[in-house]
DNA sequence: CTCTATTAGTTTCATATGTAACTAATTGAC
DNA sequence: GTCAATTAGTTACATATGAAACTAATAGAG
């Protein structure tokens, strides 16, 4: 048991929610700068491009589920990407409410440029961990994610 | 090496920055709800209370360093807490720009109520991990934090 | 069919947040 | 001492974000 709990004292620097938040913000900020500087994209726009590139024809709602974005954020990111000429929207023939989203050729180009850069950034981030440690981190995060799922709030 | 890298394909669900962001947001949201529902505090206000409770007389600037908050966020959180009657500000005698912050008796009461609740939430969050896994997670996060430090951007 | 409930997506509005400009106090060079 | 440069903290402004209201289309009960 950690000192923190033993002493019944809360040290922010040892408090997991705080540590997660700081680490995530640091990483996200770095990545956001990268996408913005190199391609003029926000993180949300990039997420939308990433899943659309991986799953052409996906709808905005499904993007939201795959990216943990709410529908307003998806709507705005999609609008921005269409404006930039990277995304194209068709209306589903079977359901007039649904959109089907596709990367334009320009969007494909950007997509193919970003993927290796993003993977390289991830690689550098994880470089200090051995591959066993990387696998272990992944496993532990998955456990935590199950524990913290919003459907089953612990607090 | 993971499939993701091997295939040179980016699957958002396996991409560490994305996973960190989603996990952190889920946890933060749960915690924020807890603080707000039970005590009417924002996460930032609670962070300020936490370090002030731990280090009475601390200045706003030092709070910023200890909580990874920028000075504007600290200023706003402090203003809110003073408004709520949980925090008290004195001007340093040796340096008229510096403030010295203290919990009021009401603030102390809240502080003492929150600490065990927050620790319990953390305990529940980590419950699915063995204590070895918890220690390992902590160690791996620390390594990552070093790797991602903003002073030494990798991208 | 037809009418109500639901769903996909957008817009509106109120609030949160970060950057930059600002004020007040202090420090340090001279 | 005096004045430029720095530091602590606040304010102002522009942008980001999320909740709720809204529009358009579909589904489902009868």
Describe it for me?
2 copies of one chain form a homodimer. Chain A is mainly alpha-helical. Chain A has a domain at 45-126: Winged helix-like DNA-binding domain superfamily/Winged helix DNA-binding domain (Arc Repressor Mutant, subunit A). Helix content of chain A is 65%, strand content 6%. Chain A has 7 helices and 2 strands; from the N terminus they run H-H-H-H-H-E-E-H-H. Chain A has helices at 3-6, 16-39, 43-54, 60-67, 71-84, 105-126, 131-147; strands spanning 87-91, 99-103. Chain A has a two-stranded antiparallel ribbon with strand order 1-2. In chain A, strand 1 and strand 2 form a beta hairpin. The first copy, chain A, is globular. In chain A, 31% of the residues are buried. The model of chain A has no long low-confidence stretch (mean pLDDT 92). At the A-B interface, helix 2, helix 3, helix 6 and helix 7 of A face helix 2, helix 3, helix 6 and helix 7 of B. The structure holds a DNA duplex (30 and 30 nucleotides).
Condensed summary:
The first copy, chain A, is mainly alpha-helical. Helices cover 65% and strands 6% of the residues of chain A. Chain A contains 7 helices and 2 strands, in the order H-H-H-H-H-E-E-H-H.
N-to-C SSE string of chain A, H for helix and E for strand = HHHHHEEHH
> Mind telling me the CATH superfamily name of the domain at 45-126 in chain A?
Winged helix-like DNA-binding domain superfamily/Winged helix DNA-binding domain
- What fraction strand of chain A? 5-15%
Helicity level of chain A, as a percent range? Answer: 55-70%
Low-confidence stretches of chain A: none
Gyration radius of chain A, rounded: 19 Å
Proper CATH architecture of the domain at 45-126 in chain A: Orthogonal Bundle
Assembly context of the chains:
homodimer
Task: Supply the number of helical segments of chain A.
Answer: 7
Q: Biggest interface in this structure?
A: A-B, 68 and 69 residues
What's the number of extended β-strand segments of chain A?
Answer: 2
């Amino acid at each position: 048991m950690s000192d923190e709990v033993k002493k019944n004292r809360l040290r922010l620097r040892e408090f997991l929610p705080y540590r997660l938040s700081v680490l995530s913000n640091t990483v996200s900020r770095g990545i956001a700068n990268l996408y913005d500087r190199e391609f003029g994209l926000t993180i949300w726009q990039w997420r939308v491009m990433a899943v659309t590139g991986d799953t052409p024809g996906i709808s905005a709602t499904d993007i939201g589920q795959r990216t943990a974005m709410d529908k307003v954020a998806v709507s705005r990111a999609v609008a921005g990407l269409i404006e930039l000429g990277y995304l194209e929207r068709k209306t589903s023939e079977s359901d007039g409410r649904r959109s089907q989203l596709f990367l334009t050729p320009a969007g494909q180009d950007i997509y193919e440029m970003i993927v290796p850069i993003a993977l390289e950034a991830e690689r550098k981030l994880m470089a200090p961990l051995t591959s066993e440690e990387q696998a272990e981190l992944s496993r532990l995060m998955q456990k935590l994610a199950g524990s913290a799922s919003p459907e089953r709030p612990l607090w």
